[in-house]
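Thread: Newbie trying to understand structure tokens

Hi all, I'm a second-year student working on a class project, and my supervisor (Dr. K.) asked me to get a predicted structure for one chain before our next meeting. I've only ever worked with sequences, so writing a 3D structure as a token string is new to me. If someone could post the tokens and maybe explain what I'm looking at, I'd be very grateful. Here's the chain:
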Amino acid sequence: MGIKLLKSMLLCLGSIVFGRCFPLFIHEHGHAIGALMTGGKVLRIYFHPFSWSQAFCIGSSSEIFVTFAGSALTAIVGVLVVLSVWRWRKYYVTVLYTGAVFMILKDGFYYLNSVANNRGDAVALIGDGVPEALVISFGLLLFVGGAFFAIECFNMLGFDSNDGVWYRFLVLSGGIGPYLVSMLVYHVKCNDDDLNRWLMTIGLSVVMIFVLSLLSGIAQRKIRLFRVEETKTVSWGEVVFANVLASSLALVMFLILPMYSPYYDMIW
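---
Reply by user tm_fold:
Sure, no problem. This is what the structure looks like when written as tokens:
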């Protein structure tokens, strides 16, 4: 049980890091593409793994389209990856699948959290005249869709249908927890005025982990689509590949973002 737990946690950690870093590029470039498609210009794209990321655009004929394009592109890329590798059983698939699912879940959560914290794309859309109910519905659509695909992640992470809620919660916490702790340390160290908002984000993330842990067990037992005839054994090859890929992506991000200046300038 100890080795099984360790491998599942490490595989989850690599998948989550990949699923956190990669969408930052996709989401912000979605805004940039939206601006270019509507006659605008991209002045700068600002990435930050532990804080807000932004694409600075001017001259667009539709701010709503530019705002919406970020999450739309993330969802499209995430769904395409998920559908491309669905039910494959190769060592390199788990990190791609779970990372893509996290992309969808993250942006759904981001919209809902944006409304709760009164900051971000969702608030910008509401400020531009989009009905709040429609914005929340879009966030829920992404989150529920991501949650549906996420059930298969539990099969890939080696969960048995009889594994309990708290075991699942422990594995997911081992994957998401280090990122949440790093984010908290960053904002405390920087004396961020938005610390309370980030604490709310962390709290909502913990609730999300528990809900996924609960629903995944029910789905594995009750929904035919997610039933597996035998429990998958996570290999060390999967664990190594996932964490090397995630670490490489994170390293590239930090090379792009010098410690003293977490962004890069792009003139289009």
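A couple of things are worth pointing out once you decode it. The chain is about 70% helix and 5% strand. The first strand starts at residue 41 and ends at 46. Feel free to ask follow-ups in this thread.
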